[in-house]
Design goal:
By secondary structure, the chain is of the alpha/beta class. It folds into two domains: 3-59; 73-312, Rossmann fold (3-Layer(aba) Sandwich). The chain contains ten helices and eleven strands. It has an eleven-stranded mixed beta sheet with strand order 1-2-3-4-7-6-5-8-9-11-10, sandwiched between helices. A hairpin with a 2-residue loop joins strand 3 and strand 4 (43-46). Helix 7 packs antiparallel against helix 8 (256-270). The longest helix has 15 residues, at 256-270.
């Protein structure tokens, strides 16, 4: 990471004024703001001191916040060998497409929200990055990739800082996704790209940090300030059914221990159902029953998708007149 480039664009989450490095903390350059941000374990903790959900002191120790490391060796082994219940053969193609769109540019600045661990397919993007490119991976959780701890509701960077912003499996875990998308719009350069993957038909998978789901046009409206390049299904109806079968089984649990046993059992019993998505990920009929959706767009100053255009973009087969 080129920290000289980072410190050119880093900003106070409270007032968006530049931050100044002072030993093991960052100080807001605006005296009237007077906010400070510690550095723990070499990682800046850029959490607003007035944040309702997270506190800076939450990150003093490198403990689990969102992702569980499961120190129990048996549980760790089961986590490693259990199959995924989602069939996603789209993300890799999308990242290859994004890579083609940006690789001709020099000095790319890329922001990944929720980037403490690698998402599906993102390796293709990372493989084309050059030494002069700046990749910043943020999260509210420590992980192998975490560059900065921050809240996506208050992205700690200056306006028009990035050429590409990625939010893969993030927006279901934030309290106000529209505010987060507005923040992405603020820090993205005009002409920059935005890419998001968000679940539709999936049960709770983030515990208390799991808030929302989106239909295709609901997802598109959230990104109405961005001109669409491509959108569609990440994982189809078969993945949705696999999730439902597994969670039907876990619904019989009356304790955390039983829930964990049923969860692993359900995964191994039903994971094979997802492979119907080899076909269904290609069909228009899957848009109304998809497990997850994606949007790839470009920022164009002044662009706004009207709600009439939004409704006309609906590509499913359901109709409001159906009884």
């Amino acid at each position: 990471m080129n920290f000289n480039s980072l410190e050119q664009i880093i900003a106070c989450p409270c007032c968006k004024k530049p931050l100044l490095k002072n030993n093991e903390e960052y100080l807001c350059s605006d005296d009237s703001c007077d906010s400070s941000y510690p550095v723990y374990h070499g990682i800046p903790i850029l959490i607003n001191p007035h944040n309702d959900l997270f506190e800076q002191k939450d990150f003093e120790q490198k403990e689990d916040i969102f992702f569980k490391t499961y120190k129990n060796p048996v549980i760790g082994f089961l986590k490693r060998i259990q199959p995924d219940i989602t069939f996603n053969n789209i993300s890799e193609k999308n990242y290859l497409n994004i890579s083609e769109l940006i690789k001709k540019n020099s000095n790319n600045r890329i922001l990944i929200l929720g980037g403490s661990v690698d998402g599906v397919g993102i390796k293709h993007l990372k493989n084309i990055l050059k030494d002069e490119d700046l990749l910043i991976e943020t999260d509210v959780s420590y992980g192998p990739n975490t560059t900065i701890i921050c809240d996506a509701h208050e992205i700690p960077f200056a306006d028009n800082s990035f050429d590409l912003i990625i939010a893969q499996a993030v927006l279901e875990h934030v309290l106000d996704p529209f505010k987060c998308v507005n923040e992405m719009n603020r820090v993205l350069k005009n002409g920059g790209l935005i890419y998001a993957e968000t679940p539709f038909m999936q049960q709770v998978h983030g515990g208390k940090y799991d808030f929302l789901r989106f239909t295709d046009i609901g997802h598109r409206r959230m990104f109405r300030n961005f001109r669409e390049i491509q959108r569609g299904v990440i994982a189809g109806a078969a993945s949705s059914l696999t999730w439902s079968l597994k969670y039907f089984l876990t619904s019989f649990a009356n304790s955390k221990k039983v829930d964990r046993i049923l969860s692993y059992t359900g995964t191994f019993l039903f994971f094979w159902v997802k492979y119907f998505d080899i076909i269904l990920n290609k069909t228009k009929g899957s848009i109304d029953a998809a497990s997850g959706l994606y949007f790839l767009g470009r920022k164009e100053d002044g662009y706004l998708l009207s709600d009439k255009e939004l409704l006309n973009s609906y590509s499913g087969f359901r109709y409001s007149s159906e009884k």
